[in-house]
Amino acid sequence: MGFFGTLFQPIEDLLGFVLQLLYNLTDIAGAGSYGMAIILLTIIVKMLLYPLTVKQVKSMKAMQELQPKMKKLQEKYKDNPQVMQQKLGALYKDAGVNPLAGCLPLLIQMPILMGMYYALFNFQYPSPEAAAFLWLPSMSDPDPLYILPILSALTTFLQQKMTTTEMNQQMKIMMTVMPIFIGWISLNFPSGLVLYWVTMNVVQIVQQWWMYRGEDSKKEKKA
């Protein structure tokens, strides 16, 4: 299983139990589906983590908006690191931004997301019929039609685009490389795991739209 598999074993067991419970609920409703259970479990996890997601995304966006000013200070005081750190500290204080604020929510979420990863990667479906979902013959195997890997790449790109405001060269490269990488590794991952990733991205996109739904109208009024 490896070190990380053992580390996240309690969370994996809990999420596996909840997944089975959600499957039983869909079965009672007359549409027993592990695929639907994975989607429901992902939505529940993302909703529970929503307050942390708000803090993380807003902190990341605030830091990106400060990037031009930070870059000017770094260039101006590149020969005097001590003064540069003082100026950057003052910039963060004036803007009400904590550069570490986006890290804590991410660190808290990571064990849950990793537990979800291992729960779905190692999940044993009770029968071949139970492992099938929509066009997928088995969620234990990679998607034979490559639909989920394509969706994983597209939703990753959209999620990054919604979060990123300052498009420097490094961010442009990241926005291209990361979705391609996610899509590529999804080609060989169990479909159930990729379904989780796609669902997580879709929920994240909806949550970020909800967070910033009033920003465009505010900007238009100011203009």
Description of the molecule:
The chain is built from 12 helices and no strands. With 223 residues, it is mainly alpha-helical. The longest helix has 21 residues, at 191-211.
What is the structure about, briefly put?
This protein is mainly α.
Set out the fold topology:
Blueprint: H1 2-7, H2 9-28, H3 34-48, H4 50-65, H5 67-76, H6 81-95, H7 103-121, H8 128-131, H9 147-163, H10 169-186, H11 191-211, H12 215-222
Helix pairs in contact: 2-3, 2-7, 3-11, 4-7, 4-11, 5-6, 9-10, 9-11
Largest sheet: none
Helix-and-strand structural type: mainly alpha
The rounded distance between the terminal residues' Cα atoms is 57 Å
Instruction: Report the strand count.
Output: 0
Radius of gyration: 21 Å
| Number of discrete helical segments | 12
Helical residues, percent: over 70%
Strand content: under 5%
- Overall geometry comes to elongated
Q: Whole-number average pLDDT?
A: 78
Helices and strands, in order, run as: HHHHHHHHHHHH
**Sequence stretches where pLDDT stays below 50 over 5 or more residues:** none
List keywords for this structure.
223 residues; mainly alpha
